[in-house]
Amino acid sequence: MTATQAAGARRLSTSARENDERATVDAPKRLRREGGQPSGTLATVTLRAVAIAIAVAAIVDPAITVTGATRARIAVVNLDSESTESARVRDRLAAAFGTGYDVQPHITSDVAAAAVIGHGYPQGRAQGTRAEGNAVPDGLLVATVTMPDDRSVHIARVSAPREVPAATAIHVDVDLEARGVATQTTDVVARLGGLEMARVSHRWTADRERWRASLDVVPIGDPPFVVRLDAGADSTDLVVGLRNASLRVEFYDPRPSWATTFLRRALEADARFHVESLGFSSRGVAARTTGDVPLTDSRIASFDTLVVGGLERLSATDVRALDGYMRQRGGAVVLVPDARVDTGPARDLLPDTSERLLEQPATLVSITGAASLRASELLVMRGQTIGAEVVAAIPGTDPAPVIISTARGAGRLVVSGAMDAWRFRAADQASFDRFWQSLIAGLALAAPPPLDVDVTPAILRPAEHADVIVRVRGQSESAVSATIDGQPMRLWPDAERGVYRGQFTAPAKPGRSTIAVRTTGATDRTVSRVVTVAADARHVGGGVTPALSMLAASHDGIDVTPERLADLERFVRGAVYAPRAPSERRPMRSTWWILPFMAALSTEWWLRRRRGLR
Asked: Which of 418, 446, 474 is the last residue of a domain?
């Protein structure tokens, strides 16, 4: 083959390859012109249809109703938002409940349970912060976490006479509760009219301790007397009126008794007392005063205290009358035996005693701080009644109680075992007289009057609501009416016989209001009560936060310490279940649909470009 022929052959081969390539490129166009389709077109159409379907579904946004378990809501409330430890406990509970429940920081109407954390429960509030005030629903399950006690001293109770006679000191007993203040000292100060009238101090020895402080305040100024008691950071006010009426005491002796004779003379020498007596020297022969009243007479309710001697001669009727006087009238009965009583109806009033005869008289120490007694013939109380208070005892490592006081219904029963104390009445500067004058005056002042008006709280802040309780003792009255500052006040009968209740609102400005109560019927009586309204009034327990456990107990929950959070979690999970309820779902609102939508469009575009299509 010549060179010319070889060159021609090469040109023909090159031209053939070019034609083949051009045919390959133009094949899709020819197929379109001829009405045919390539094999990959079905995939592109399918992908395009999927993308269009997703877009249309997103525009329509269909709703689907399904039934399934929902997440119950639980409130985890921290009442001490300023406490780091409380906040840590709150975070632990929120994390523990977050896996199965919706946790929120406040109590709302749709929560199934609540866990409340704090040192105490602010009254009338259930909130995450103290600024909010949503009440806890009655049927809500509440579990509480009580944080460790803080350091505090507060006034738990105040005991004082409602009224005192003229020239009589006001005896005040203050019960204090302390926690976390061991080795510290607390001063209890009584002030009247801004002046310090009495002060006592106590050094605490335990982390949790209770102590009673006794103070005597000399009343000055015009009644009623407002005494302010300060104990550390806590304080309270009490109101004591002036008693114009004498302390009424009656002596009853079924037979002559030296013990009651000299006791009566001690009271007759004190101008504060109005003394009546009824004594029997023999059967049918009685020595009596003009105003005496038999024990079975309803008029016995006019006396504040009864002193009884010659106990072995008491009849069963006498004993029932004395018991009814204490329980219904609320008066005090003082039993003064001069011999041991082993039989007879009086045994129902006496505790178990053992007789002790001494060669030399013993000095009995008064627990209340009053004057002492001396006696050599003693009845020592062996089995004290539950709740009995020791008035006087023989000193020693194990003091033997000789005079005790116990509660009997609304009244009190005092039993004296100093049988021959009257023999030593002249010793120790007549301490016999002073002891009995002080003891019986305290009993008479504590006894409520036959017609009693009680206002709670005793001293009010402006526009504060108060409750009024009227008690009629000793006899039934036909009608009871009341007024406040001359305006009628409505009273409602209570379930308890002889008790009536009412309410009023204090004036908007500080001052005094007068409540007058009148009874009509067998005996017409009228009593008035002056109510003090002060802008800075303090109430017992006003600064004390109630225990948080009370909230759990009233809502069927449990109270735990921070170390027992696992117990609280198990309790809540066992009590609160996720309810099943229908719910509406809109699946196309999920952002995950963008992935298949973009994948379909991208793949369809790639296939078309690969085949040379636009």
From this structure: 446
Q: Domain range spanning residue 184?
A: 152-227
Instruction: State whether 377 and 410 are in the same domain.
Output: yes
Give the number of domains in the chain: 6
Is the domain of 57 the same as that of 115? no
Cβ atoms of residues 102 and 141 within 8 Å: no
Region 316-324: mean pLDDT is 94
How far is Cα of residue 206 from the mean position of the Cα atoms in its chain? 23
For strand 225-231 and strand 285-288, is the pairing parallel, antiparallel, or unpaired?
unpaired
- The pLDDT tens digits for 159-204 are 888 888 887 889 899 999 887 788 899 999 999 988 999 999 999 9
32 and 42 together in one domain:
no
Q: What is the pLDDT of residue 14?
A: 58
pLDDT tier, 221 (very low <50, low <70, confident <90, very high otherwise)? confident
Shared domain for 90 and 172, answered yes or no, is no
CA distance 489 to 518: 12
* CB-side neighbour CA atoms (13 Å) of 406: 17
Q: What is the pTM of this model?
A: 0.60
CA dist 135 → 122, 124, 129, 261 (Å) = 11, 7, 13, 63
Q: How far apart are CA 255 and CA 127, in angstroms?
A: 69
Between CA 411 and CA 437 the distance in angstroms is 19
Q: Are 274 and 384 contained in the same domain?
A: yes
Q: Indicate whether 319 and 457 sit together in one domain.
A: no
Count other C-beta atoms under 10 Å from residue 217's C-beta. Answer: 21
Looking at 405-528, list the stretches that DSSP marks H as alpha helix, in order from N- to C-terminal side. Answer: 427-446
Please check the confidence at residue 548 and state whether its pLDDT lies above 90. no
User: Do 257 and 357 belong together in one domain?
Assistant: yes
Pair 461, 432 in one domain: no
- Higher pLDDT: 475 or 513? It is 513
